[in-house]
Amino acid sequence: GYFNRNYVKNGIIDQEIGKFLSISYELRKKGDYGDFIEFTEEEALEYLRIVKIFINEVKKIIQQKIEDAEN
Question: Mean of the per-residue pLDDT values for the chain?
Fold first, then answer.
């Protein structure tokens, strides 16, 4: 969607994060409309690692937008 078009494809956010967001969206749909989803500890730790990277990248984007607006 919008995020991939404007941030991932433009190289602002790493493609690994874009792939993770697509996977997490599919997992959320399965969780919402299907049976319970179970993750291994290894999977959960990998998702957590990527989420931390994603949060840090979004913080950088927001900070840059704030700085740009102040100038």
Answer: 88
Identify the burial level of 18 via C-beta atoms within 10 angstroms of its C-beta, where 0-12 means exposed, 13-18 middle and 19 or more buried. middle
- Is 54:17 a contact under the CB 8 Å cutoff? yes
Task: Assess contact for 8 and 18: CB atoms under 8 A.
Answer: yes
How far CA 43 is from CA of 20, 31, 39, 40, 47, in Å, comes to: 12, 16, 6, 5, 6
- The reply to whether the predicted model has a pTM over 0.85 is no
Find the Cα–Cα–Cα–Cα dihedral 54, 60, 65, 71, rounded to 10°: 180
What are the pLDDT digits (tens) for 37-57? 788 999 989 989 989 998 999
* CB-based burial label for 13 (10 Å; 0-12, 13-18, 19+): buried
